Give the backbone structure.
Amino acid sequence: MIFRALQTSALLTLANPVQVLADKYSSGIFPGGTGNALRFPPVFNNGGTMALGTTNVNVWPGQNTEVLSINGSYPGPSVIIEKGSTFTANFVNNFNEPATIHWHGLNVPELMDGHPKDEILPGGNYTYTFPVINRGGTYFYHSHAHMLTAEHVYKGFAGFFIVDDPAEIGLGLPRGNFDIPLCIQDRRSVNIPQFTYNPQMPDIMNGFLGDTPLINGTPDAFFEVSRTLYRFRLLNGSNARIYKIAFSDNRPFHIIATDGGLKDEAVQVTSFFLSPGERTDILVDFSTYTIGNSVILKSLPFTAPGTGNYVQGTEMNLLRFDVTGNTGSGGIIPAVLPPVNYYSIADVKTTRNFTLTMNMGGMNMHRINGLTFEMNRIDWETPQNSLEEWRIINASNMLHPIHSHSDMFQVYSRNGNTTLPPEDKGWKDTVLINPFETVRLLVKFNDYRGIFLLHCHNLEHEDDGMMLNFKIVDPVGINSQSENTPEGFRLHQNYPNPFNPETVIKFSIPKSGKAELKVFDSRGQEVRVLLNENLNAGSYEFRFDAAGLPSGVYFYTLLTPDFNATKKMILIK
């Protein structure tokens, strides 16, 4: 893990290697030749305040850059939290525009997702709190304000949200000071030292691209490494730029994780694509270098649509690694990683088509199914626990990284080819759709109901309206209480919820008869029978002990001869 070498709460801060790195490199004690030592933002104290506002920081040495920051930090403070914990932050909007925080890739309730309909006005505040039910992995947060997302993110409103899973310890992956988050962004050198955001028509068409890469907010960045194995968590935090990640000496490395955590195998590559919103974790072994060597993390040139001063596919030097020591990480490249439960195309219940188009001239050039975003319009409904196939059809010559909120999806094929690049395999929330390409996704929404978003993560395209609302509704085949419920029949929400390992379920029945109370997992498999007997009319409560069951979403159903009802509960261990 990248933190918490010790588990006692009194020592958590002292045992946080990310904070140690932040202090170490901001002090400037490792000059490392030319360039600027890689910065690390501070770590957010769970339960504290995240205050949004403008501040001046030294992005380029000796020069003030006005940024839109959280708690005065650019990039925003890194959230580092253990799976199964409850995250809480009091968001205070000290900026002069509406704002929300979207927890990108995290599976959270509707009112915690940062949808633009739930904006926090200037001077207002809102408490975000949710159980962390995602797999261990590299996630992030950023602005999602209506038609302001691109500008807010470009000016600095974004940061890491890293979920640590203690179950990964046994895999032998590099941890602590050898587990390094890297946020890649681009800015325009002509505007140094400011993050000037003034998109023109070509920028709305192609995205607001820069020619100067910043890594964790550091220009001309270098990082000192030992001759050992490292884990790097790469996040593309750019508005629109796509990177073809490689090393200057074409050295091989291993991809071990995508957007939603670990893959089922470590795959050796020499390059891969990383589009805005995507994350990929890699293992890099520096043991073959000698002390004094350097190697550069690059973006290789590639052909892409667009013309002008700023184009996709520009070759860039991102980060220089200087080999300075022999300290071992103790990490290995695992021969086997935990299995991924891949969906079967044969189990698809519904197929939906989403066609991406571009209409020249004016605003709202970029569209999905001919539509642009309307705040109060629901574009489709999808039932919980029902596997769907989404066919993303790019009918334009633009590049579109498509992102879905709520649950992760799996990429099934590209233009009919089910042999996928390694950055596509595994759990994903963002996928790059190339010009005139059709990509098929498999998705199932297991955890939360409500209104969520599907949109392009080229942020200029998103703000131009390339975004739709969808609503996750009751599971197919499971009845919840409605206006037709008999008087006196009621199934209450369990309490506490989420819970570990016990919770109380209460219900009332209006007349005597057979009653059954059963618990099902998210796949609809029966896991416990709590009650199966004749009862008199009245109110009852049962204590459900989930010992032996894994964390996850479960449903409990009350069945009687006249009616039945189902509710959802969340077990977190």
Observations:
- Residues 204 and 387 are 34 Å apart (CA to CA).
